[in-house]
Amino acid sequence: MLLSHNFALLEGEIHPLNRAEFAEVFSQAFADKAGIGATYIENPHWVVEVRYAKVRYTAKSAGELCAETLANYRKDSKAAGFTVMALGGLKTTPPTGGPPSLQQGEWGVDVVETKQPDEFLDEINWDKLTAAKPADSVFRIDQSI
Predict the structure, then answer these.
(1) Residues 133, 107: contact at Cβ < 8 Å?
(2) Which of 10, 75, 129, 130 is most buried when burial is the number of CB atoms within 10 A of its CB?
(3) Domain spans in the chain, listed from the N-terminal domain onward
């Protein structure tokens, strides 16, 4: 599973995490968890590779853990009044490049921080993007802060 980060908040509202900081949130949080780990990757779009034991986690439960992890990190820093979303999709088409780009059969998850989740979803045409896909190949997780 690969994670990207969409920071759709004003910079003055909360500290925007750079790529390394974003990756560190997950690598530190997962360091003590069994069956899941996270590492920073070099890719123009994707930031973190999350590896999880499929006997312990599904893609959706791993996505839930990712949204919860960032939400808890933000709560610890006293941030409030926004939503962390994890928007996941299973790659079903051939890859556009070799690893660490998203490969066919892997999950890509956009982790979004926004005050207006519905507007963000409208901007990316989420309903249209997901309408033709099987229900088990996409997920949306929301964590309010």
Answers:
(1) no
(2) 130
(3) 2-144
Q: State yes or no: pLDDT of 19 exceeds 80.
A: yes
Instruction: State residue 92's pLDDT score.
Output: 93
- From the CA atom positions of the chain, what is the Rg in Å? 15
Closest listed residue to residue 47, CA positions, set 79, 6, 88: 6
Q: Cα separation of 71 and 50, whole Å?
A: 17
Other C-beta atoms closer than 10 Å to the C-beta of 64 total: 17
Per the structure block, which two tokens stand in for 37?
Answer: 């780990």
Taking the CA atoms of residue 66, residue 70, residue 76 and residue 80 in that order, the dihedral angle to the nearest 10 degrees is -130
Ordered alpha helix ranges (H), the chain: 19-30, 59-76, 117-123, 126-131
